[in-house]
Description:
Strand content: 25-35%
Distance between the termini: 56 Å
Number of domains: 4
Structural class: alpha+beta
Number of helices: 5
CATH class of the largest domain: Mainly Beta
Order of helices and strands: HEEEEEEHHEEEEEHEEEEEEEEEEH
Helix content: 25-40%
CATH superfamily of the largest domain: Efflux pump adaptor protein, beta barrel domain
Amino acid sequence: MKFKMTRKKLAAVVLLIIILPIIYNKTSGFVTGMIQMQMMKMPKEVVAGHPENVETNISAEATGRVEAKYSIDVMARVSGFLNKKYFNEGDYVKKDQVLFQIDPQEYQLEVRNSQANVNQYEALLKNSQQELNRANALIKEDLVSHSYVDQSVADRNQNQALLDAARQKLQLAKVNLSYTTIKSPVDGRIGKVNITEGNYVTLTSGPLVNVSSIDPVYVTFSLRSSDFIKLLKASDNLKDVEVKVQFEDGNWYKKIGKLDFIDNQIDKNSGSIQMRATFENPDGWLVPGNYMKVSLVAPQKVQFITVPQACTKGDAMSGYYVWTIDKDNKIVRKDITVSDVIDNNWIVESGLELTDKVVISGVQSIRQEGQKVKTITAEEYQKKLESK
């Protein structure tokens, strides 16, 4: 039996082939849309929790720089040839340790000459004093004139003045001689020599070398004005604030520093205030010039309301807000003011109460206020995420 395809039948088949996919797409799209609409109407599952009341110490962080308490350029105080140095560059030196020797011969001669002048004027003064004593004795017997006595007094006084000047000159010569031996002004580490032995140095030659103290050391830093005010409120005028510093490898220095300088005003350009802490540094681990993380902690504990950062929306410019759930399981937006972060939680200054029910997880599924949600436990929420 042969099947005969007429033109009408062929046209009907072609029409069905064209129309059926269109009908299918239309129908499946409608059905899918209806399903999605029904799913949209179903309450979204979220995890909710109350804000936490946290008691903690006020703290702040900054970047600081280690500085030597004393950084002194050693200069020549008299002129002469630099004969010798008595240290190796980079050595640790003690206060009054000899560093350089300037040729002392010229200054030794000056001391000897000055001493000779002192001896001469001492002899002249002694002689003039004896003359004055004799004149005073003779005037009593009216054997010399008053003018002779006056002249003796003048001679004695003149020799006394000359002796005083000679003694001062001798003292100056001894001081200059002592300057030929250049000593370290402080305990510390010595740097690179700028002028080597054999050179002629003067008072204007510039630094011979630098000595920087290493125990104790300063750590200077700038603190934001907002952090400064918080620490000020939670301490005894910052006197009892503990200062810690952290190395680049993440380890904290074992010694606790103490604030010893706070500037008297906040910089109008940066909005920060200059501060400085002193640290004991017996092992020399804090090296001048090094940058370190600085942490300041006030001793008094303060209570704060906190919420996880992950549950907040918005930014620092437009402000932050959270989604809360009312008694009818509907979403309510609450704008909040935050100030700082503690363990990935925002400190909430205003906008929330401890009784508020805040959406912790599932924030991304919330579209608008008034939306209905269903609260589930964190464990259930995690399982649903893992099953997807």
